Amino acid sequence: MTRFARVVMPVLAALLAGSATWPGAAQAVDGPAATAPPTGTVRVHLLVPSDVAPDQRYVDGITRVMVEAQRYYKQELGKTFRLNSPAVEVIRGERVRSWYENTPNGPERYWWTVFNMQQELMRRLGLGAPDRRWLNVGEIRAEGPGAGGGGGGGWVILSGHDADGAAGVNGPMNRWYGGMVHELGHAFGLPDSSYTDGTPMSASFYDYPNTHFTQSQKNGILNGPYGSFLY
Questions:
Q1: What pLDDT was estimated at residue 34?
Q2: Which of 53, 84, 113, 195 fits 147 for a cystine, CB–CB 3.0-4.6 Å?
Q3: Domains of the chain listed by start with CATH number
């Protein structure tokens, strides 16, 4: 099963069942922003659980990761996506960290933390999956045993190790730049490569920036459901 299907289909099924700095400095908020950002942009959300202290390193670091991904897409496609100002919307979570990590949601523990985050963001901000107004990135400062993340259907959903990486406290930055490029590729509609082929849709993203999209992948992004977002 593709990463797209593994991420999006369980979320849609849950919803149908009824469950549920650079561009600017972000401030933590207790609910939806008063004014939604312009449509046709990549909208980035950082969910901070209620018992986790705010830390500007995470806002600044995620902003840097997004700006680098923006630069890479411009290099590869001749077009790139728009970020908002502020680039990162910080949302104070309704629950403590352990709730996001330990509340079952989805077919395997890998998805619990990020699905709990995504569904809270969707409910509180009125977002869809997919949402034709924005391509959405959600990160949470929570992890849990075996937690991961992914991308697909206009979303990137990432758990604590990616947030820590962006903040500069979890190893070399190129790993996190390449990971965001990879997951955004899924959000734009690309599948994983079937082998390590030098493209960011394979494990070659670990070699970032020494990786490039194929022409077929470029066409897939430009002609895909969010191709009109690129300028």
A1: 64
A2: 113
A3: 3-17+27-32+39-222 (3.40.390)
